[in-house]
């Protein structure tokens, strides 16, 4: 990697005087980094030069490229920013400063740590917020950061394995999706493949070997397809460039996972064979599509028009899959040369300056409008981890495009509901929402929206406000952080005393439902609240969801030091489920009187003939034992495949289909239902008592929440045995 390559590529599109700035930046950076080496052993200057070379591929201006060359000088060489400004001007200095401020974004990964602790969450959230703000102010800062990360990923093998994984994980979660949201797929795909090779090296090699094994046959086939297509397009008098389109390993891996779920194999994946057609104009795109469909039969349901409906990144193209030569499925992408440039370089393709004023073009402004809107929403988000999660949801998830009754298009994250749509239109409309019509039909408010849906919100002029159920993640009413935060703000404005009382009711209901007897003070401390009242208010306004309690308890259970030998008799604990402290290897049996599950506080009782019986700590059968020395400490030891029996009681109004709806919810959670007893009364009520096999309190809480939402259900709770 040499500066001459940077200079040569930059000379293809920059004026000669701009190259002088790059030359000066390189000479100064080389002087400052003299004697510094990377972990790989190469001179340090090779890294900023490589980042600059990536930016020349994106056709960025001389200021951004110079800043990429200089971006590590202030931090690694102790040079003040004022010196950069004095030598290279205010614009380069501002970009270098922006990249330097973002250097902490990767601090967790560079230390080889995952952001698991609350303090780490705060650091990651604040750094992510800084990156988004920097991007909104000048997108070139983040483009330089992406180039910096891409070269670091290319040379990741020089780092210790633990740091490789941490950096790769962060790349997969933050930087690759960010490149995709900016439309820079050239960088997104490479970042994904490089991260995948570090995170899942065996799977990466397997797919690479599968692709390599069929490469010769695939290339021969694509060559034949290209010739046939080129001839047909020439006969239709369409000036077109036809070529094979390479598939990226991580995208193939994602396809394979989806196909495995459907019981299909690697060879069935539609778009392993793919070609791209580049034409001059938009009418030529549709004309070429007609030629392709006349030549080969299209596969039903495999056509997308991203020209009429561009992606949020402004990506435009026609995608179709046809049954081509030898009956093999073939994906065809059709776009103009300009669309292809935008698809490869994304937001960088619109970074053009007007003469004299240096203002970005209108398409650029359109591209970053979503970002500025997102930043406005994120100002309202309070928690650090919630901010990180919400950005990943609202910014990086796939999008769906839906329409208002007036034909205005709105983009939302995949899985968004009519409530999310209502809050996207206006906060007041969300607060007043009582129902929704999708394509003219009434639907439940937790219905996921699909591309092309026409959504009409039913909202009276006056309303009592949103429902707290909307904040329950188990019920699926709200997916976007924007809607969730607006709902919480509404509840925060209610009286503190009312929120306190409501929070107490919700907490007591959840503890009763799960049959948990943990002190409220102890639960509040798990959520980092010193005062119980503040904790209850947080529940009342929706900042803490009752469903999170089970998750928190399950994830803070102590882990044991030893493993016992367990019995295989009926009623014995699953192998390795419980550890007995300080007694040696003993058979352990789950007490049927209280049926403990992971997440419960448990104790052991040494029996005379059956080893240790494991009870919940609040079980009345051991509350006042005659021989207290028989009570011993036990703890959970869990494997992913372990299941525990628990009895659940559902009370509801009797109706046709009630049992079907209840068992459908249980089946959807992949929970085994071993026993069902249904009793009805003359008053029209029904009681369903079921024995389930769950993985613990967390899963139990989730399924109880969903059962409570079944039509006609009045109460759901866990039975003692």
Low-confidence stretches: 104-120, 352-360, 558-576
Computed structural class = alpha+beta
Mean pLDDT across all amino acids: 79
Number of extended strands: 19
- CATH topology name of the largest domain, in short, is Hypothetical protein af1432
Q: Specify the CATH architecture of the largest domain.
A: Orthogonal Bundle
**Assigned CATH class of the largest domain:** Mainly Alpha
Helix content range: 40-55%
Between the first and last Cα atoms, what is the distance in angstroms?
69 Å
Going across the biggest sheet, name each strand in turn.
1-2-5-4-3
Strand content: 15-25%
Secondary structure layout:
Blueprint: H1 3-10, H2 16-32, H3 46-57, H4 62-70, H5 73-77, H6 81-88, H7 90-101, H8 107-110, H9 118-137, H10 139-154, H11 161-181, H12 185-199, H13 201-213, H14 215-235, E1 241-244, H15 249-261, E2 274-279, H16 282-295, E3 297-305, E4 318-323, E5 329-336, H17 337-345, H18 362-378, H19 384-394, E6 399-403, E7 409-413, H20 418-425, H21 427-432, E8 435-438, E9 441-443, E10 455-458, H22 481-492, H23 496-514, H24 520-526, H25 532-541, H26 547-555, E11 578-580, E12 588-590, E13 602-606, E14 612-616, E15 631-636, E16 644-653, H27 658-668, E17 672-680, E18 685-694, H28 697-708, E19 713-718
Parallel strand pairs: 2-5, 12-14
Antiparallel strand pairs: 1-2, 3-4, 4-5, 6-7, 8-9, 8-10, 11-15, 13-14, 13-15, 16-18, 16-19, 17-18
Helix pairs in contact: 1-3, 2-4, 3-4, 3-10, 4-7, 4-10, 6-7, 7-10, 9-10, 9-18, 9-19, 10-12, 11-12, 12-13, 13-15, 20-22, 23-25, 26-28
């Amino acid at each position: 990697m040499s500066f001459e390559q940077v200079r040569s590529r930059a000379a293809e599109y920059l004026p000669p005087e701009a190259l002088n700035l790059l030359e000066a930046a390189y000479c100064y950076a080389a002087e400052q980094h003299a004697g510094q080496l990377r972990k790989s052993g190469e001179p340090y200057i090779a890294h900023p030069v490589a980042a600059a070379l990536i930016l020349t591929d994106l056709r960025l201006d001389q200021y951004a490229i110079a800043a990429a060359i200089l971006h590590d000088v202030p931090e690694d060489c102790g040079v003040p920013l004022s010196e950069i400004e004095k030598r290279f001007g205010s614009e380069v200095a501002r970009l270098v400063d922006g990249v330097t401020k973002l250097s902490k974004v990767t601090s967790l990964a560079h230390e080889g740590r995952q952001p698991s602790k609350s303090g780490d969450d705060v650091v990651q959230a604040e750094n992510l917020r800084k990156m988004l703000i920097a991007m909104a102010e000048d997108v070139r800062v983040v483009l330089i950061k992406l180039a910096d990360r891409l070269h670091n990923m290319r040379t990741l093998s020089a780092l210790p394995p633990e740091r490789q994984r941490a950096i790769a994980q962060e790349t997969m979660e933050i930087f690759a999706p960010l490149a995709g949201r900016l439309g820079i797929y050239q960088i997104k795909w490479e970042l994904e493949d490089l991260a995948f090779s570090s995170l899942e090296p065996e799977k990466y090699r397997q797919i690479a070997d599968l692709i390599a094994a069929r490469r010769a046959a695939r290339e021969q086939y694509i060559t034949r397809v290209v010739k046939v297509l080129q001839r047909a397009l020439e006969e239709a008098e369409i000036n077109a460039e036809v070529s094979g389109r390479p598939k990226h390993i991580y995208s193939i891996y994602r396809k394979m996972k989806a196909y495995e779920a459907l019981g299909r194999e690697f060879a069935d994946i539609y778009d392993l064979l793919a070609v791209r057609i580049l034409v001059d104009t938009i009418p030529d795109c549709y004309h070429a599509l007609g030629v392709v469909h006349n030549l080969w039969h299209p596969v039903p349901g495999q056509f997308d028009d991203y020209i009429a409906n561009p992606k949020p990144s402004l990506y435009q193209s026609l995608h179709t899959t046809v049954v081509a030569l030898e009956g093999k499925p073939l994906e065809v992408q059709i776009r103009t040369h300009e669309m292809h440039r935008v698809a490869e370089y994304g937001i960088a393709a619109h970074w053009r300056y007007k003469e004299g004023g240096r203002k970005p073009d209108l398409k650029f402004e359109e591209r970053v409008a979503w970002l500025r809107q997102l930043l406005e929403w994120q100002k309202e988000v309070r928690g650090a981890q919630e901010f990180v999660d919400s950005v990943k949801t609202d910014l990086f998830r796939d999008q769906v495009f839906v329409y208002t009754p007036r034909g205005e298009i709105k983009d939302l994250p995949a899985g968004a509901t009519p409530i999310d749509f209502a809050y996207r239109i206006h906060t007041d409309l969300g607060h007043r929402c009582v129902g929704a019509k999708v394509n003219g039909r009434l639907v439940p408010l937790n219905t996921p929206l699909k591309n092309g849906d026409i959504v009409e919100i039913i909202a009276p002029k006056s309303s009592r406000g949103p429902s707290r159920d909307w904040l329950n993640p188990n019920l699926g009413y709200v997916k976007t952080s924007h809607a969730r935060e607006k709902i919480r703000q509404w509840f925060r404005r209610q009286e503190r005393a009312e929120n306190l009382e409501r929070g107490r009711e919700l907490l007591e209901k959840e503890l009763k439902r799960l049959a948990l007897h943990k002190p409220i003070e102890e639960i509040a401390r798990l959520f980092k609240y010193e005062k119980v009242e503040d904790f209850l208010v947080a529940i009342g306004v929706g900042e803490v969801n009752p469903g999170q309690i089970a998750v928190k308890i399950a994830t803070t259970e102590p882990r044991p030091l030893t493993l016992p030998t367990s019995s295989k008799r009926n009623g014995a604990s699953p192998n390795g489920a419980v550890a007995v402290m300080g007694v040696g290897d003993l058979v352990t049996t789950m007490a049927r009187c209280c049926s403990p599950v992971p997440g419960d506080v448990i104790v052991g009782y040494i029996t005379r003939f059956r080893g240790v019986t494991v009870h919940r700590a609040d079980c009345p059968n051991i509350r006042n034992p005659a021989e207290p020395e028989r009570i011993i400490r036990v703890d959970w030891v869990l494997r992913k495949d372990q299941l525990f029996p628990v009895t659940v009681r559902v009370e509801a109004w009797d109706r046709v289909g009630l049992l079907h709806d209840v068992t459908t919810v249980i089946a959807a959670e992949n929970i085994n239902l071993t026993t069902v007893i249904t009793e009805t009364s003359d008053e029209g009520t029904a009681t369903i008592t079921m024995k389930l096999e769950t993985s613990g309190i967390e899963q139990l809480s989730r399924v109880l929440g969903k059962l409570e939402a079944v039509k006609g259900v009045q109460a759901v709770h866990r039975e003692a045995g």
